[in-house]
Design a protein that fits this description.
Radius of gyration: 35 Å
Shape: elongated
């Protein structure tokens, strides 16, 4: 069980989000029953039940309703909650329970096969034997029980004795395998609903009980109750459907392989360094500030920073990038990544639920537990599916009996085929299994979807809007040229400007400060520091009033740039961002600052074009610099000189004409634009605020992750459409076939058993899919 407190969007009241492992669900009708039961509970805000994960995600008001009330509602609906001991790890307990269920279904299949296979073979042999005497005098004697001669005993046994043996073989199957379906149907009936168990229980019990009645007639010599027994039909139905349930459970287990891999990445123990002594302790006992020793070949236990040593670290399991990343003193490291070479001493900074791995797992689970908009149609159909099938089965029986003028037995067989062929399971599994595999595959590639709505929306994107700094470029600008003006000395200009920028967190300001440090220039502490978002900064240094900003913002201050225009244009044409320094109201100098594009940006933009997408760059930089970078990266269009608060309007303009726009960014200033876009994509190396505002998070800073996200979304939605097509077309075609008497119950059971397996197996194909740039 996992809980988290989240703000209620409707008011200031806090809601609690809880994940409840549900037992006993078999189809989409079960999902709807659980959702309805929980939704009716006072204090419940929102409910999402997922058949593939067998979990209910419930948002509720803790002041009104408690966990016990939710459990009570689920149990009253005829389902159960997997209770987990306090000392147990929830994921381990759930995994053990699912595995136990798989083993239980396997045992039932083996038991069913042990009785059903001989029953089926003997029944077929008997029918073939009797068919060989059809229409002969011997057949009449056998039927009348007056057969004499050496074969009299054998013939009587085949006609009158074997049905009792068939009943003995079928009864254990009906009791042991059929019990789960009968109990499920009974619970559903108590709640005035019907589900897959209802169909299976009715179909198998009809064949079994009819055969029992025939046996009673044979024992009592009641001619009116004579007829053919269908014990093999009931046994084969139950065995085949249980086999399908077992295979489905196994396949569903594989849909969560990705998240299981993530959970196994975290090491169980860590080496803590205390007073020069190394001690092995459980990772769960680590706290922020612990000094940890990580040897070559060991996994880094938690997120932290390198205090001593240098090495290369394999981060592919979280970022999807195959090349190891160099780490030196001061480098940040991520928990669960692999130290390849040197010995590292790191200081733990984030432990437990705060680590990047824990957050990735939380995001994946959150996405897998959500419901995609495309599932609404399946939900609407599942709400009436089973009642409609029951009506169709009744109409089939009455139609054949009254209009078709066939025997009661033949009409019953056709009705049983209708009950057994209908498959609500495939409808319930079509979407969630694909979502589970798709989001899990994304996590393996370093692409995290916040929910299934984001996964679906990414498929429809037509325009990709990219922020420049940190997204297309490295986000590590450096000063390429300093031009001192109006008699100012270059080093004095750098000292004053860098001193003023000491309080700034802007990458351009940091580049100026780094340049001063590289020249060993002593800086002073500024006073009256102010930052104007997107325009520049002002400060007082040694009594001088300093203003540093873009050429446009300086012009707005009334400072003439005529004497510097030529140098400004030259720097901008060379893809430099120009920063202007003004001292006491006079132009003092200009800085050319360049931020090189990432090695992967050109490849990513080309891949986006190959997907048929338009690529636009939105930046606060000047038009000349932005266009120079756009040309280098192959970008289609540039929207330049955009202030942070204008980015939202820029996204809105791109959305005109109902165009679907994805915004990719990494900074705090990008958060509003990420929220405005149809799909917000945050570079994982960016800020927590940007990641929180986004729909998709790229764990690495590689722009090729956007390509993977779009491709994965398209592949997942394609798989869901295939699954839904199969689920609908299967029922649309085969139910009428069964109604007109062209499908025997045994074949109907086989088709129904494997329809769900097909859906799950089709979803699993996403696991092995290869995507561009991977």
């Amino acid at each position: 069980m996992q809980t988290a407190t989240v703000p209620n969007k409707t008011d200031e009241t806090k809601t609690t989000l809880i994940s409840l492992p549900i037992t006993g669900m078999t189809c989409a009708s079960c999902v709807r029953s659980v959702e309805r039961a929980l939704s009716k509970t006072p204090g419940v805000v929102e409910v999402n039940v997922n058949l593939a994960t067998e979990k209910a995600s419930v948002s509720y008001l803790p002041d009104i309703v408690q966990r016990g009330d939710l459990v009570h509602a689920v149990e009253n609906a005829g389902y159960g909650i997997l209770e987990i001991a306090e000392a147990a790890v929830p994921e381990d307990a759930e995994r053990a329970a699912r595995q136990a269920e798989i083993e239980r279904q396997k045992r039932l299949v083996l038991i069913g096969a042990a009785f059903t296979i001989p029953l089926f073979l003997l029944s077929m042999a008997r029918d073939l034997y009797m068919a060989s005497f059809a229409g002969s005098d011997m057949s009449a004697h056998i039927l009348a029980g007056t057969m004499v001669g050496p074969n009299a005993a054998l013939n009587w046994l085949l006609w009158s004795g074997w049905p009792f043996i068939f009943g003995l073989l079928a009864t254990p199957v009906q009791i042991l395998l059929g019990r789960q379906y009968i109990v499920g149907a009974y619970k559903a009936a108590l709640n005035r609903t019907a589900n897959m168990d209802t169909l299976i229980a009715l179909g198998s019990m009809a064949a079994y009980l009819y055969s029992i009645v025939v046996l009673i007639g044979m024992i009592g010599g009641i001619t009116a109750l004579s007829g053919h027994v269908y014990f093999e039909t009931s046994a084969v139905i139950l065995t085949l459907i249980t086999l399908g349930k077992y295979l489905e459970a196994r396949a569903k287990g594989h849909t969560s392989d990705a998240i299981k891999k993530l959970m196994r990445l975290a090491p169980k123990t860590a080496t803590v360094l205390r007073d020069g002594v190394e001690t092995s302790v459980p990772v769960a006992e680590l706290v922020a500030g612990n000094m940890l020793v990580v040897r070559p070949g060991e996994s880094i236990p938690v997120d932290g920073v390198v205090i001593e040593g240098q090495s290369s670290v394999d981060e592919s399991m979280l970022t999807g990038e195959s090349l190891p990343v160099s780490k030196i003193t001061g480098s940040a490291v991520i928990g669960a990544t692999l130290n390849k070479q040197g010995r590292l001493i790191i200081e733990a900074q984030k432990v437990g639920a705060e680590t990047a791995l824990a957050q990735i797992i939380r995001l994946v689970e959150q996405a897998q537990g959500s419901k995609a908009p495309i599932q609404r149609l399946a939900d609407q159909v599942s709400a009436v599916f089973v009642p409609v099938v029951l009506i169709l089965a009744a109409l089939t029986f009455l139609g054949w009996l009254l209009i078709g003028q066939i025997s009661f037995t033949a009409a019953m067989v056709n009705a049983v085929a209708v009950l057994v062929i209908a498959c609500p399971c495939a409808l319930g599994l079509a979407t969630p299994t694909a979502i589970m595999v798709g989001t899990g595959r994304g996590a393996e590639m370093g692409v995290l979807f916040k929910n299934s709505e984001a996964l679906e929306a990414a498929r429809q994107v037509q325009v990709i809007a990219l922020d420049k700094t940190g997204t297309i470029t490295r986000g590590e600008p450096s000063v390429t040229e300093i031009i001192a003006l109006n008699g100012m000395d270059e080093n004095d200009l750098l000292r004053i400007t860098a001193s003023a920028e000491r309080g700034s967190e802007h990458p351009l300001g940091e580049a100026i400060v780094k340049t001063a440090a590289s020249r060993e220039i002593t800086l002073v502490q500024p006073t009256d520091f102010e930052a104007a978002s997107g325009r520049g900064i002002s400060a007082t240094v040694e009594g001088q009033q300093i203003w540093i900003g873009s050429p446009g913002s300086v012009s707005e201050k009334g400072v003439a740039l005529d004497t510097a225009q030529e140098q400004i244009h030259r720097l901008q044409a060379a893809a430099n961002t120009v920063v202007v320094a003004v001292v006491d109201g006079k132009l003092a100098g200009i800085f050319g600052i360049a931020d090189t594009i990432k090695d992967s940006s050109r490849e990513a933009v080309a891949a986006l074009h190959a997907l048929g997408l338009e690529v636009v760059m939105i930046t606060g930089d000047n038009t000349r610099t932005a266009e120079a970078i756009a040309r280098e990266a192959g970008i289609d269009r540039v929207i330049a000189e955009v202030l942070p608060d204008q980015k939202v309007e820029a996204i809105k303009r791109l959305q005109t004409g109902n165009k679907r726009v994805a915004m990719v960014g990494d900074g705090i200033n990008d958060a509003p634009a990420l929220a405005q876009a149809d799909v917000g994509i945050a570079i994982g190396t960016g800020t927590d605020i940007a990641i929180e505002a986004s729909d998709v998070t790229l764990v690495s800073g590689d722009l090729r992750g956007v390509v993977r996200a779009i491709e994965l979304s398209r592949a997942t939605m394609r798989t869901i459409r295939q699954n839904l097509f199969w689920a609908f077309i299967y029922n649309i075609i085969l139910i009428p076939v069964a109604m007109v008497g062209l499908l025997v119950p045994v074949l109907a059971a086989a088709a129904m058993a494997f329809s769900s397996v097909f859906v799950v197996s089709n979803s699993l194909r996403l696991k092995g899919a290869m995507y561009q740039s991977k």
